[in-house]
Amino acid sequence: MQTRRHTPQPADPMRPLAGYALRRASSAAMAEVAENLRPLGLRPVEASVLLVIRSRPGATQSDIGRLLNILRANMTPLAIGLERGGLVRREKTDGRSRGLVLTEKGMALTAKVQKAFEASDRSLSERIPKKYREGFVAALYALWDSYEAESRLDDLSSS
Amino acid sequence: MQTRRHTPQPADPMRPLAGYALRRASSAAMAEVAENLRPLGLRPVEASVLLVIRSRPGATQSDIGRLLNILRANMTPLAIGLERGGLVRREKTDGRSRGLVLTEKGMALTAKVQKAFEASDRSLSERIPKKYREGFVAALYALWDSYEAESRLDDLSSS
DNA sequence: TATTGTTATACTCTATAACTATA
DNA sequence: TATAGTTATAGAGTATAACAATA
Fold it and tell me: Distance from residue B141 (CA) to nucleotide C4 (C1'), in Å?
């Protein structure tokens, strides 16, 4: 039996790593979403905040940040920007909280946002061979939930 | 038959979007890779460059950048940093090109890099139910290749 | 003419710390 | 004490433009 002294090196050593493929696929998909939102004058993060506000009128900046994994400190300029654009109102509910609600203009734009997200998602799905589509999405949720459960455990142990 | 005036809004309107799940899964996986590389004193991008140099000794900065989707302008400080760390030598091959090769120290560290990447990838895989694993990876490559083919077409039409 | 490496620069994203006002 | 919002700031990551040297 022969002994192989060195593992053979692939021409592209990153390609076989699923994590790297995940990152490349994600950033490419993100670029398409950004492209589809550009005509609306919104970045993906702003568009996602609008969708959340529509589904949870009166949600606080902190609520939205927790849902979308955006830090409180970064929600402030984001919310102010949406208010300046006439898309949301920031109503003091509580003395320390600000509940966000869509304006008429914000509601109209959010309807377009939803269409843009859905179009991007359709495009993504069509790039995957049919037989893998269902399992792909299930696997993504398994990953997302698994990593998130772990990070919640980390939070507990560091407090 | 009843008419429904408004589409009901889900509690989390981003969750059903595969593209959003893709982004969340990717950034969580990336965080774990960064964590696993931290003891080696390397960021993911630096670690990936080392792996590429090992598999393609003498590759130029531009070569590596094309493979890893890193701009030439950003390869320069990256390569200088690896050289300062004693991990790579930058050899003038061509008068304008610099071929990168690993030093002894770089080779030793790259072996550890490979183990760290593989551990991260194993962790990722184990978070996915077995029945979805194979299809998940196939779907990722389909996505990556599909978006990349499209961006190559865009490059052609803009030149 | 096209390509390599380089520099300078800018913009976005993400993260931390510190502060206030309120619950 | 814990939480909401705010401000300032810092660090990555990514991007563009311009230039010199070389192919």
Answer: 30
